[in-house]
């Protein structure tokens, strides 16, 4: 299988925070969601992939090239939307094309204009008069207009209303119909990713604790509600996290079917993606 | 790199009108003061501030981070700023020369001679490129806002250093310099260009270590 992003044992230490041995791979033709609470290390991981920060160890390959050595070449083929990185407020969408066309070899002016129209982004209005959603749409359009193979988006859907968010998620779906295209999207809004992502990577305190196909996570994980004394009968290996109450406990397990066979009397519910995060962050084990 | 210069133009061109008004104001004032050099100095100073305005905009918008996700190298980013500075300085010279030619036709000024203007222009440029040479690496290291606080010191130190040295130099040395003004002038220009080049390499090395 062809991987568009390969991160291997990425380490980066800041005072008070560090990424520890982060490894994951993004295959072609898929959308990968990077989920974690605020400060979990999503943005740092993305910055490392983009070579915006120096790493303390590990290997990162994007489009089968080393990011440290071929950064400029790689960036020709990726579209990026970063939190807090944007165009100047006084510029207008139409003017942006004038210099982006000189920066990207494959900048497609016609496609850019068409995307602006599709998303209803005004070409002649200064960006400072845009709403948050409009600004985000412009950033996404600008990231798409040079026909990249890979889209990397950091918290890009956060400020959007449900209608626009759906439009954009649809666009991503269409984008990955090509097997050589992929999207890596980080968010703390798990419902967005639940809808579109094919793979999910969970990150917490700078460590990845799960990177798996979404459908498999949804299929295999489950939440058991039981009495506190019953927790002990569940196989330790299956337990991902426990949320203890006075009279009952919720246990997140990763082998729903197997547990069902072992204990047919247990009520095992399906999960939402955010449950995995909540149990990991707030639960104990 | 050309894309970055075009971007610089589009972000700063909204200042064009204000600058033209400012130049008219300086023009009127210089006629009133009967000094073409006043105009030249003010225009050069104000034009040269443009690069800092541009870089301040870059950081407010998050452009400095954003541009690093595009197919440009860190060297390109630094180079685009150094080239911009040359463009601003050159435009200042063009504007003040054109002004002095026009104004001398209408209302000849005491200090409006082309030779004197050229000397002043060269002196100003030397000074400005030395100031740029110090400020640009500082901005790449510390950012515009922190540098702004130190800017006054950076601008005043070379000015006072030059004036101070002139003050304490024996008469004979000054006479010697004056007699060979062309040689010393040329040496000054070459030196400041050299310093500017060195400063560029320092900035590249600072910027390539920067994290976003």
Give the number of domains of chain B. 1
Q: Pairing-aware structural class of the strands and helices of chain B?
A: mainly alpha
Along the chain, the helix and strand elements of chain B come as HHHHHHHHHH
Number of strands of chain A: 14
Gross morphology of chain A is elongated
Tell me what portion of residues of chain A adopts beta-strand conformation.
25-35%
Oligomeric state of the chains? heterodimer
Chain pair sharing the greatest interface: A-B, 32 and 25 residues
| CATH topology-level fold name of the largest domain in chain A | Rossmann fold
Mean pLDDT of chain A equals 90
Strand content of chain B: under 5%
* Gap from first CA to last CA of chain A: 35 Å
Defining traits:
heterodimer, A: alpha/beta, Rossmann fold, six-stranded mixed sheet, four-stranded antiparallel sheet, 14 strands, 34% helix, B: 212 residues, 10 helices
Summarize the structure.
The complex is a heterodimer of chains A (about 280) and B (about 210). Chain A has helices at about 40-50, 65-75, 95-105, 110-120, 130-145, 160-175, 190-195, 215-220, 255-260, 275-280; strands spanning about 5-15, 15-25, 30-35, 55-60, 65, 80, 150-155, 180-185, 200-205, 205-215, 220-225, 240-245, 250-255, 270.
């Amino acid at each position: 299988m062809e991987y568009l992003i390969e991160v291997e044992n990425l380490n980066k230490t800041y005072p008070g925070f560090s990424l520890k041995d982060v490894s994951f791979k993004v295959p072609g033709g898929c959308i990968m969601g990077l989920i974690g609470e605020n400060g979990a290390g999503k943005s740092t991981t993305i910055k490392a992939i983009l070579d915006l920060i120096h790493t303390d160890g590990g290997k990162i390959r994007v489009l089968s090239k080393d990011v440290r050595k071929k950064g400029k070449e790689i960036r020709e083929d990726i579209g990026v939307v970063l939190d807090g990185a944007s165009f100047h407020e006084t510029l207008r969408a139409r003017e942006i094309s004038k210099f982006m066309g000189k920066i990207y070899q494959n900048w497609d002016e016609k496609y850019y204009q068409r995307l602006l129209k599709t998303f209803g982004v005004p070409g002649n209005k200064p960006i400072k008069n845009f709403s948050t959603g409009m600004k985000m749409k412009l950033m996404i359009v600008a990231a798409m207009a040079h026909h990249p193979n890979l889209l990397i988006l950091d918290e890009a859907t956060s400020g959007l209303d449900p209608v626009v968010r759906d439009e954009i998620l649809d666009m991503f779906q269409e984008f990955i119909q090509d097997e050589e295209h992929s999207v890596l999207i980080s968010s703390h809004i798990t419902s967005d990713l639940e809808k579109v992502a094919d793979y999910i990577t969970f990150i917490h305190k700078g460590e990845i604790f799960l990177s798996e196909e979404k459908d498999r996570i949804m299929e295999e994980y489950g939440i058991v509600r039981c009495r506190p004394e019953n927790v002990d009968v569940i196989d330790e290996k299956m337990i991902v996290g426990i949320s203890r109450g006075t009279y009952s406990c919720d246990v997140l397990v990763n082998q729903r079917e197997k547990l069902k066979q072992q204990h047919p009397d247990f009520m095992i519910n399906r999960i939402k993606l955010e449950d995995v995060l909540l149990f990991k962050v707030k639960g104990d084990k | 790199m050309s894309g970055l210069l075009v971007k610089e133009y589009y972000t700063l061109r909204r200042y064009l009108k204000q600058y033209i008004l400012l130049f008219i104001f300086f023009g009127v004032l210089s006629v009133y003061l009967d000094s073409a050099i006043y105009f030249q100095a003010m225009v050069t100073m104000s034009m040269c501030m443009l690069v800092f305005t541009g870089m301040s905009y870059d950081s407010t918008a998050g452009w400095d981070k954003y541009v690093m996700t595009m197919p440009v190298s860190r060297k390109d980013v630094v180079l685009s700023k150094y080239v911009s500075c040359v463009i601003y300085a050159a435009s200042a010279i063009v504007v003040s020369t054109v002004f002095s030619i026009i104004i001398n036709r209408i209302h000849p000024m005491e200090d409006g001679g082309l030779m004197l203007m050229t000397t002043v222009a060269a002196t100003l440029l030397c000074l400005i490129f030395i100031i740029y040479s110090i400020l640009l690496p500082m901005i790449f290291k510390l950012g515009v806002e922190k540098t702004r606080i130190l800017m006054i010191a950076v601008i005043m130190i070379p000015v006072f250093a030059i004036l101070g040295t002139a003050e304490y130099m024996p008469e004979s040395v000054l006479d010697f310099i004056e007699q060979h003004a062309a040689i010393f002038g040329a040496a000054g220009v070459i030196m400041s260009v050299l310093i500017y080049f060195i400063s560029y390499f320092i900035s590249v090395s600072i910027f390539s270590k920067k994290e976003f």
